[in-house]
Amino acid sequence: MALTKLERRTRIRNRIRKKISGTAQKPRLAVFRSNRHIYAQLIDDKRGITLLSACSREKDVATAGNVKKIEQAALVGKLLASKCKEKGIEQVVFDRGGYKYHGRVKSLADAAREGGLKF
Known about the structure:
Layout: H1 5-19, E1 28-33, E2 38-44, E3 49-55, H2 59-62, H3 69-87, E4 93-95, H4 104-114
């Protein structure tokens, strides 16, 4: 019997999470993508806390006007990179969350790299 989309993504996500772990010096950049919005968090897995987050629902991104979802993801990536600079975080481990590295996920990652994050 075939897997549903959610079951398939969960399997891929678990396989990725076995290999990836974040620390305080090099946190995990976790991406969640819904139909309308995109969310990104920096997580310290050793202590189990979220260091900072950015999403497309924040005021800076939401007031950008009528932009496409890929452009919205790029704005979230830039916002996340600027927040990281303020906290002094330069390197992260990228966790695509079981999504394909394509479209909005790729746009967010590229914008975060342009903003100064290394991964």
